[in-house]
Each structure stands twice: as structure tokens, then as C-alpha cells.
Write a structure and sequence with these properties.
- The complex is a heterodimer of chains A (306) and B (351).
- Chain A is mostly helical and 306 residues long.
- Chain A has 13 helices and no strands.
- Chain A has a single domain (2-295), classed as Orthogonal Bundle (ABC transporter involved in vitamin B12 uptake, BtuC).
- Chain A is 72% helix and 0% strand.
- In chain A, helix 2 crosses helix 10 (223-233).
- Chain A is globular.
- The termini of chain A are far apart.
- Chain B is an all-alpha fold and 351 residues long.
- Chain B has a single domain (4-347), classed as ABC transporter involved in vitamin B12 uptake, BtuC (Orthogonal Bundle).
- Chain B has helices at residues 12-36, 41-50, 56-81, 89-106, 115-141, 145-165, 201-217, 219-229, 231-236, 241-264, 279-289, 294-317, 324-344, and strands at 4-6, 345-347.
- Chain B is globular.
- The chains are: A mainly alpha (306), B mainly alpha (351).
- At the A-B interface, helix 3, helix 4, helix 10 and helix 12 of A face strand 1, helix 6, helix 11 and helix 13 of B.
């Protein structure tokens, strides 16, 4: 059993990484009161931008991640212009951004189909990597996996302890009051949306240059939507988001180990598991209306024109 | 910077001007895109939007693509008016195709005239079922329909993949994930030789008329709309929020299911993994572009069909990936929503 469990847990950490990046980004965006359903699109654009940058420069993920972040951020700014400056409908704009981003990614990606990249080796942290069981799970991951934990720590700290986090939450709860006490509501929301885009872009970049460094169309395969659902599951709290991402990482990775575990289920059933699990998790968390209402940023999804 | 401020009265002019404005903006942005890709914008424009309509076959194809879009959008519009955001039409289409296709596969040797009607009924049922599921999740468990309907799209794709690579795979199909070709008895009859236009357009026509009548004449449509805007008020009118959710999702699932049968018993002719080039998502744009109005949706459906045809033409004549269709669709919806912002707001004037 252990010989299966170790690779499953190690794989879960790697599979959770894009969900952590994109989920944290969307969490920050939603805490500012803006619901961006375009995560899937921003992730797709980030993935192709990173892949193109990585393959042309020869620098791999080192250049791929910043390129993905930049591309994701620029895509998010389109959304920000329409929903914040023009106060257009957020849910529908997010959907449009997804359609646009997925299309753009496939359009550019056409030239790269079945190109491959060298990928990123595990760090093999000295001494730690040799600890039995824990070593292979926690200390032989690639650098981006650890980067996602750093991102989590920073977001959690900023939201809980910093002035910036306080302003962000104030804007999300009541843009009217925040505006009245002199907070730059629009600038904060633009910043939060841009941050969400950059994080989704990094998630896409991780997928295309590290996780499966080979270009196939539709790389993000719904992970952007799962990230949005994770934010609801996490009731807008970073720690719960992290746990949720690992849960989903585990479910995602299970399909590659099912055969070894002797689970005789059609591959499609296993491949569908993360999506089915998302529905189940949404249902489980939404049943408790009070829990949601207690944590939901009060202005989420509503336009604000002072 | 906030560019807008609220108007005292919503602008009626903008409500109807927004779709043409969005189309013009899409064309301008599209020309810029072609130009940036090193193509002649005017020439590309002609390939994309004019050439597909220069032959009778092209007009037929326009109809073939517009029908499923219109069918789905008419159903979605009912829900959108009641503020039920079903973005799962793609999955509902696939389930319709699966249910209808299943009938065709099991009765492939039958010559009964009832095979096709049974397929249509099964398809409607399959789509409705896939709409009913998120309705239950919303009314009984409070789960937002946007995310659940979307997730069910992926689940539907995997069910389709399983069926066509497992139980329903064509034994003589060289292991491709596809079913047998349906017999002629299980296909809609082609209306004119040399085209793919078939009798399923009458289903679309019927649905358009039915929804137009429903919206214009029925008290139920009125209650649904009120239900979306003021749930409390609609409860007094004797129509609960629960009924609104169920009705909207089941009806939109049903029309998407019909569109699914139309595809597999029409141009596709079998179950495979390419049943729909994203009609379920594009129909959302069609519904909004058509102002959630039965007749407006017909116009918008033809425009969206032209964008699909243009994408295919661009692939052939300009060597561009067909994914350009998605870029145009996304831009169109964004511009439409941007223009819609001017219904309730106007440009901020310096004080």
C-alpha cells in the first residue's frame, strides 16, 4: 500500500499547485468584491504565453512563469476595464473572457501542437529528500510547488495582518463606505483583478512548462473553473483553499494510480471524478446558507459607480 | 477611472443599439487582429464574412449552423430573464445527443417510422434531465447553478467519451471513438440535394414560434420575469422561486437536448467526440445578442452561424486555426456587455 501512497501524495502536491495559484488569485479578486469567472481563459492565455516564451528563449520555466503571469495579468485587465471602468455585468464578462482566452490560446497554440519542453527537475533538497516516505512526498518536488506555498503564506499574511489586506476586505464588504473614507476603491479592485490574472497566468504557465511540458490544446481542461469553485468551498479563506486544492490534487492524481491499486473502473469515470467532486463539494458547502453568507464578501459581483 | 455615471432613466435607444454597436466593434477589433497577423484586413474580412454567403451551399450551411444555436438560445433566454444562469447547455446538448443517439443505435435495423420521433423525444428528455439535476442542487441544496451547470458539461463529455469508446463503439470503426453511422431511417431527411439542410429546421421553427407566443401572450412568462427581479413579489403571484428554477433549467436543457439530436441525426450522423463545436457556449452569446427576444435570437443565431462559417473559411483560405471563432465570440460578448453598460449609465461629464 505504501508504495502506492507515496507517489499518490507526491503527485497530489504537484497536481494541486495550479489550483493553489489560480485559487489564491481568484480569492483575492473576490475579497475585493469582484467575481471574475474568466479564470479558465486567463489560465489558458498564461499557458500558451509561457510555452511560447519558454520554447523560443530556451530558458524553460524560468522565463515561462513570468511570461505567463504577465499574459494572465493583461488578459485580466481587459476584464477589469469592462467590469470596473464600464461597470458591465461581471459574471457574463468573465464568461466572455473565458471564451476569448481559450480561443486565443488554441489559436496561437496551433503552431506548437506536440512541441515539448525540457520541464523542471525536482529540487532533491539535501538530507531532507532522503527521509523515508516524507522525503519523496515533500522534499523532491520542483521549485514551483514550493513557490505555491510561499504564495499562500504571503496571501494569507496580507489578508490577515496588513493594511493592504484590510483595505481590500473593506472594499469587498462595502465599496460605498470604503469610498466614503477615502480608499481608492477602483484602484484596489483593478489591483486585485490584475493579481488574480497574474496568478491564473502562473497556474497556466506551470501546466504548460512544468507539469506536462508538451503543448496539447485545451491545456487547462477546466482547472480554472475548479479553482473558482474552490474559492466558494474555501468560504473565501486561504487556509481552506490550500486544503481544498490538495484534496482535488489527490482526486486528480488518483486516475493515474487506479490500475496499480487494482481499481477496475473505466478511465473516463476516473477522469470525470474531479468535476463530479467539484459539484459534490459545492453542494456540501452551499447547504449551509449561514456559513456562506457569513463569509461571502458583501459586494461580490455587484458593480460600483460612485 | 470610472468612465460612467448612472442615467436618470434607462436608455431605450441603447438597449437596441447595443447589439449593432457590439458587432461593429467586433469587426473593427477583428480587422486589427488580421492586420496584426500580417493579413490584409479587407481581404480577410471578405473571406470571413462575405465569401461563405456567395453560394447556395453556403446559405444552406448557415441554416445548418444557425438552427442548433437558435434552439438552445431560445431556451436559455427563458432562464436568463428569470436570472437563472444556465451555462451548461453544452453538456445538455451532449446528453440530448446521447439519449437520442442511443435510440438510433438500438433500433438501427428498424424501419419503423417511429424511430426518429422516439429519438427526438429521448433527446429532449436527456437534455431536460441534465438541466433538472442542477435545478435540484440549487433548490434543495442552495448550490449556485453557474458552477454546477458548467461542471456538468465536463461530466457529460466524459460520459460521451465512455459510451463511444466502450459500449457503443462501432465494432468496425478501426477503434476510433465513434458509434456506427445511423441508418437513413434514424436521420432527418435532407430538404434539398447537395445541401445538409434537413427537416430538423422545423423543430427550430416550431420552438421559435412557441417561445414567441409564450413570451408575448402568457402570464407564466411574466411571472418568470418578475420572479427573477423580485422573488418575494412572484411568491404573491403564486409562483415560487423553486418553480422558476426548475422550469427555467428544464426548458433550457430540453431545447439544448433537441439541438443535440438535431446534430447527431443530421449533419453528424453518428455519435462521436465532435458533436458540437461549442454551440452550448455560443448560444449564451446568441441569447444576449438577441436581447432575450424570440425574434432577436433568430437574427443573432444567423450572425453567430456566420462567425462559425467564417472561422472554417479562414482555416481553408487563410490557413488560420479555426479557433479564431472563439476569439471573435469572446470579443463580441465583451463588446456587447460593454455597450449594455450604457443602457443604465452614460459617460461621466465633467462637473
Amino acid at each position: 500500500m505504501l508504495e502506492h501512497l507515496v507517489p499518490i501524495l507526491a503527485g497530489a502536491l504537484a497536481a494541486a499547485t495550479p489550483l493553489i495559484f489560480a485559487g489564491l488569485g481568484e480569492l483575492v479578486t473576490e475579497r475585493s468584491g469582484v467575481m471574475n469567472l474568466g479564470v479558465e481563459g486567463m489560465m489558458s492565455v498564461g499557458a500558451i504565453a509561457a510555452f511560447a516564451a519558454a520554447s523560443h528563449s530556451g530558458h524553460g520555466a524560468t522565463l515561462g512563469l513570468p511570461a505567463g503571469a504577465l499574459a494572465g495579468m493583461l488578459t485580466a485587465l481587459i476584464f477589469a476595464f469592462f467590469t470596473l471602468s464600464l461597470a458591465a455585468n461581471q459574471a457574463a464578462c468573465g464568461l466572455a473572457l473565458t471564451i476569448f482566452g481559450v480561443g486565443l490560446s488554441a489559436f496561437i497554440g496551433q503552431h506548437y501542437v506536440s512541441y515539448s519542453l525540457p520541464g523542471l527537475a525536482g529540487l532533491n533538497l539535501p538530507l531532507l529528500a532522503d527521509i523515508p516516505v516524507l522525503g519523496p512526498i515533500f522534499f523532491r518536488q520542483n521549485a514551483v510547488v514550493y513557490l505555491s506555498l510561499l504564495a499562500f503564506a504571503i496571501v494569507a499574511w496580507v489578508l490577515a495582518k496588513s493594511k493592504l489586506g484590510l483595505m481590500l476586505k473593506a472594499v469587498g464588504e462595502s465599496p460605498e463606505s470604503a469610498h466614503a473614507i477615502g480608499y481608492p476603491v477602483l484602484a484596489i479592485r483593478y489591483g486585485a483583478v490584475a493579481f488574480g490574472g497574474a496568478m491564473a497566468g502562473i497556474a497556466g504557465a506551470y501546466l504548460s512548462t512544468v507539469y506536462t511540458p508538451l503543448w496539447v490544446q485545451n491545456m487547462s481542461a477546466g482547472r480554472g473553473w475548479i479553482s473558482v469553485a474552490l474559492v466558494v468551498f474555501a468560504t473565501w479563506k486561504p487556509t481552506r483553499l490550500l486544503l481544498g486544492a490538495y484534496l482535488f490534487g489527490g482526486i486528480t492524481i488518483l486516475q493515474f494510480h487506479a490500475q496499480g491499486l487494482g481499481i477496475a473502473v473505466p478511465v473516463q469515470v476516473l477522469a470525470a471524478l474531479p468535476y463530479v467532486a467539484t459539484v459534490i463539494v459545492l453542494v456540501a458547502i452551499s447547504r449551509d446558507k449561514r456559513l456562506l453568507q457569513l463569509n461571502l464578501p458583501a459586494s461580490l459581483g455587484k458593480s460600483f459607480l460612485p | 477611472m470610472h468612465l460612467l455615471e448612472p442615467r436618470a432613466q434607462p436608455s431605450r435607444v441603447m438597449r437596441w443599439a447595443a447589439p449593432p454597436l457590439a458587432i461593429v466593434a467586433m469587426l473593427i477589433a477583428g480587422s486589427l487582429l488580421f492586420w496584426a497577423l500580417g493579413k490584409n484586413p479587407l481581404g480577410s474580412f471578405k473571406v470571413f464574412f462575405i465569401d461563405p454567403l456567395t453560394s447556395a451551399y453556403g446559405w444552406g450551411e448557415l441554416l445548418v449552423k444557425a438552427c442548433p444555436l437558435i434552439l438552445i438560445a431560445e431556451g436559455l433566454a427563458i432562464g436568463f430573464k428569470a436570472r437563472i444562469y444556465n451555462i451548461g447547455a453544452e453538456g445538455q446538448l451532449i446528453m440530448g445527443a446521447l439519449f437520442g443517439g442511443g435510440v438510433a443505435i438500438y433500433y438501427n435495423d428498424s424501419t419503423s417510422m417511429w424511430v426518429l420521433p422516439a429519438m427526438v423525444a429521448a433527446g429532449a428528455l436527456g437534455g431536460a434531465l441534465w438541466g433538472w439535476l442542477p435545478a435540484v442542487l440549487k433548490t434543495n441544496f442552495n448550490a449556485e447553478e453557474t458552477l454546477t451547470t458548467l461542471m456538468l458539461n465536463y461530466v457529460a463529455v466524459f460520459i460521451l467519451e465512455y459510451m463511444v469508446s466502450g459500449p457503443w463503439r462501432d465494432p468496425d470503426g478501426m477503434n476510433f471513438p465513434q458509434s456506427v453511422m445511423f441508418s437513413d431511417n434514424a436521420l432527418f431527411r435532407v430538404l434539398a440535394d447537395g445541401s445538409r439542410v434537413n427537416t430538423s429546421i422545423f423543430i427550430a421553427l416550431f420552438v421559435v414560434l412557441a417561445f414567441w407566443l409564450f413570451n408575448a401572450r402568457s402570464f407564466l412568462a411574466y411571472k418568470l420575469e418578475i420572479g427573477g427581479h423580485a422573488p418575494a413579489a412572484s411568491r404573491y403571484a403564486g409562483f415560487s422561486a423553486r418553480q422558476t428554477v426548475w422550469f427555467s433549467l428544464i426548458i433550457s436543457g430540453l431545447t439544448a437536448g433537441l439541438a443535440g439530436v438535431g446534430e447527431v441525426a443530421g449533419p453528424v450522423g453518428q455519435l462521436n467526440l465532435n458533436i458540437s463545436p461549442g454551440y452550448g457556449y455560443a448560444a449564451i452569446i446568441v441569447a444576449y445578442l438577441g436581447r432575450l427576444h424570440a425574434a432577436g435570437i433568430v437574427l443573432a443565431g444567423f450572425l453567430m452561424a456566420l462567425i462559425y462559417l467564417g472561422g472554417e473559411a479562414a482555416q481553408v483560405s487563410l490557413q488560420m486555426p479555426a479557433a479564431i471563432t472563439g476569439i471573435f465570440q469572446g470579443m463580441l460578448l465583451l463588446f456587447l456587455l460593454g455597450a449594455d453598460a450604457f443602457i443604465d449609465n452614460r459617460l461621466r461629464r465633467p462637473a
